[in-house]
């Protein structure tokens, strides 16, 4: 009787171990899917915010005379390059304006003029990985003085 009981308990223990292994494997796969889903969601949020920020500044560029004086006035935490052709604005992980030391993302605005055409380049990057998230180009025609 003891031998029969021992075999049954061994078989039950083996089945229990197999079931635990199966559920552990299934839960590991599910956790991996949840982590990947979170990563995709975060990347999508960052892309959406990058598109919004670049589009906003592109519209400001296209609507006004000179963008950099406005940026220096309104976004004092940003940085104007010495040659005055590039302005960089910094954002933290929640896409709030911040100083360079706390920055996770940057929006670099480069403006060039060739005759009557002014071109603007708006590049949003993730600073840590130096990874470009979004890039937008815009142009505008500069009307000559005295024309109506």
TrEMBL record:
Protein name: Type II secretion system protein
Organism: Bariatricus massiliensis
């Amino acid at each position: 009787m003891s031998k029969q009981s021992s075999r049954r308990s061994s078989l039950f223990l083996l089945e229990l171990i197999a079931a635990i292994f199966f559920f552990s494997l299934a839960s590991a796969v599910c956790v991996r899917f949840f982590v990947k889903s979170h990563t995709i969601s975060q990347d999508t949020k960052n892309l959406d915010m990058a598109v919004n920020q670049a589009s906003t500044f592109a519209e400001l560029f296209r609507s006004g005379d000179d963008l950099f004086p406005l940026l220096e006035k309104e976004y004092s935490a940003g940085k104007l390059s010495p040659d005055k052709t590039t302005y960089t604005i910094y954002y933290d992980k929640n896409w709030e304006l911040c100083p360079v030391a706390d920055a996770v993302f940057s929006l670099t605005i480069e403006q060039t003029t060739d005759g009557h055409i002014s071109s603007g380049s708006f590049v949003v990057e993730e600073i840590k990985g130096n990874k470009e998230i979004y890039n937008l180009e815009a142009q505008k025609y500069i009307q000559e003085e005295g024309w109506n």
